[in-house]
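Re-run requested by the PI after the first attempt was lost when the workstation crashed. Everything re-entered from the original request form. Ligand of interest: zinc ion.
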Amino acid sequence: MSDDQPQPSRGLVSRIGRKLKKTKTTPDQRRNTVDNTTKRQPQRLQKRNASQPFPDRQEGINELGERTYSIWSETSTLVDEVRRDHTDMIHGLAHHGSFDSLIEGTRTIRLEEDEEVTEAQMRRIGRCEARFKKVSSDVWQRIASFLNPADAAILAVTSKTLLEKLGLAPLDALTLPENQRYRISFLNHLDRHLPNHLLCYPCATYHRRFSRDEKLKADFINNPLYLCPKVFSTYLPRMRLTQGRELPYSFIQLATRHAHSRHHGIHADRLSRRWKDASGWSHQSRYTIHDGRLLMRIRSQIFAPPCLTPTAERMLLYDREDYIPFFSVCKHWQNGELMRLCKCALSHVPGPHQSTLDRIRESPNLKAWVVKPGFVARQCDECRPARRCPECPTEYLIEITMAEDKNDPVCRFKHVLVVTRWSDLGDGSSPTSSPEYCAINGVKVDEGYDSFSHVGRRAVAGIFESKVSGCIPGQRMISLNPKNEKLGEAGHGWY
Ligand SMILES: [Zn+2]
Ligand SMILES: [Zn+2]
Ligand SMILES: [Zn+2]
């Protein structure tokens, strides 16, 4: 304030000084000074701009060293107007700090809401508790006897009153080896409260995770996610993807748990991989979450030469060690028409382009010369449609397309056999009770799985592609095993 206020004595001295200077200067000198000032002006302005925010503090001050104020003027204080910096204002509107604080904010709001709801319901709960107390322990135990061990344990831990009435017996029952699947079902309810732990199915216990940033590696045995005491005595739940590639069940858990929060698991996209077999097949896997379940797509392809003999077809399709296809299949691949359709698709690969001279030499086969085979493979009505396995949520699409072979300098573009598999891997609840996962791996569960009754308006392939690529495959979908015969290895002539 004090710097900006005009001081009368200093103003008077400066005015007298200026008058004295005016009298001493000649017209030539004056011209020089004017020239000098005009020349220096830009420099002075620059200096002022750099050091002083307000260029002329004497402006608006009268001869008496006072400021004149109009009642209509906007400035009404003695302090110079502070210029508003609009960029500062815009930056002030921006969000500062991490977005975690926003999440925390919503969490607190939600918690408050919950508390409000709890408060509103507290009286009702209190009345219910009083009624529960009136019912004798024998009646409660009778009610619990109609429930399965998991539900009885959940009932026991619902409230303090019920725990008093039922005792620890329902919880003790879960420790019995025959009740292990109920124990897993009970522990699944705690999943959202334990982000740093992962449920181990062989132990039926939560183990602490080594890291929150797990990566799916081909050698998952030597890269465990947690320290399990039964690591050498039990079988780690997993499913076969292709030859030499498996998916541990823990990664299905992590991907489905990601719905709770990013600390609970990993995003489904991070499971996607590309790899190539020694057999020449190349594979590409992709995952997404839909309705709390993990959906998978594996696209496998290999260069398909034309006019293959039956033996060459088998060499192309099967692993000769365990006689399983090189591409990804569900457990029921032998029961349907999958392998016959693959062989049918291979038969549609057109032969190599022949020169006119070669064709004339081959005469009298003139018909084949007139009807020139094109380079595009046309599949028949048998092998073109997508197929759905009637016993599990798996769908297949067999295609013959073109691909570039960078290693072949003569023939760059070749036909490839592409087998795409879509599967629903379930909700990650358990490798022994999740209906979709059990159906895919041929594990028998109480309810069973009827694939076509579970298909709603859209099949797995349609849901997956609409989420991931935005376009649904145009092929119609029919059953992989229309006659529903289960002849297994002996029948169907799959080999
Ligand atoms: Zn364990
Ligand atoms: Zn065909
Ligand atoms: Zn199947």
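Saved to the shared folder this time. DSSP finds 17 helices and 13 strands in the chain.
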